[in-house]
Write a structure and sequence with these properties.
Layout (H helix, E strand, L loop, with lengths): L2 H32 L8 E10 L4 E10 L2
Antiparallel strand pairs: 1-2
Length: 68
């Protein structure tokens, strides 16, 4: 195993995950705001779970996103 390759591949995956996740959250929040389901002053609870079944990894991160 080449640790440098592993590191680069993990970084590429995380960059892709971060960019697409941000896009999805923005789209969902704007849609909810436009439909009146959000006022724009909420703080949203968020949770992301990373799984790598081959190595038995399941890791969750929880946090908040303030809209105002």
């Amino acid at each position: 195993m080449n640790e440098d390759t592993l590191n680069m591949e993990i970084r590429k995956f995380l960059k892709k995950a971060g960019v697409s996740s941000q896009r999805e959250i923005e789209h969902a929040v704007l849609k909810a705001f436009d439909s009146g389901d959000l006022s724009g002053e909420e703080t949203l609870a968020v949770k992301m779970t990373l799984t790598v079944p081959t190595v038995g990894l399941s890791h969750s991160i929880e946090g908040e996103i303030a809209l105002e």
